[in-house]
Amino acid sequence: SSGINAEYGGRLLRGTINNMKMKRTLTIRRDYLHYIKKYNRFEKRHKNISAHVSPAFIDLNKGDTVLVGQCRPLSKTVRFNVLKVIATSAADKKKFSKF
Predict the structure, then answer these.
(1) What sign does the dihedral 37-39-44-49 (CA atoms) show?
(2) I need a labelling partner for 72 at 20 to 30 A (CA). Which of 26, 42, 81, 86 fits?
(3) Do residues 90 and 63 make contact, with C-beta atoms less than 8 angstroms apart?
(4) pLDDT for 49-89, tens place per residue?
(5) Angle ∠(70,72,75) on CA atoms, nearest 5
(6) Do strands 25-36 and 41-52 pair parallel, antiparallel, or not at all (unpaired)?
């Protein structure tokens, strides 16, 4: 087994855990607002990002807010690594986190 030893350089992102069904990988959801000039309004958008999670992070749950750091490609979709847990959440529903 190859131990994941990725160094961090690049972007630091925060997001809400959306999916934990993979082994040592989770999906975070990042919500943001996109401005539509024609209507002078914002629309809600989101991106899902796959991130590697170390076995050292126990007690992670869906809905928790985590900080992820960019690293080398670990697989086809994984380019981020969980660095720390920012906030834990008891709520287990999909929501737009800005409000």
Answers:
(1) negative
(2) 86
(3) yes
(4) 999 999 998 889 999 999 999 999 999 999 999 999 998 87
(5) 105
(6) antiparallel
3 is written with which tokens? 């131990």
Q: How far is CA 74 from CA 40, 43, 70, in A?
A: 40, 32, 11
Report the distance separating Cα 23 and Cα 21, nearest Å: 7
Region 44-50: mean pLDDT is 96
Q: Which helix (H) or strand (E) holds 16?
A: strand 12-22
Per residue in 20-35, is it b (16+ CB within 10 Å) or e — as a string? eeeeebbbbbbeeeee
Q: How many residues does the chain have?
A: 99
Amino acid present at 32: Y
Count Cα neighbours of 34 within 13 Å in the Cβ-side half-sphere.
8
Strand 65-70 and strand 12-22: the pairing is antiparallel
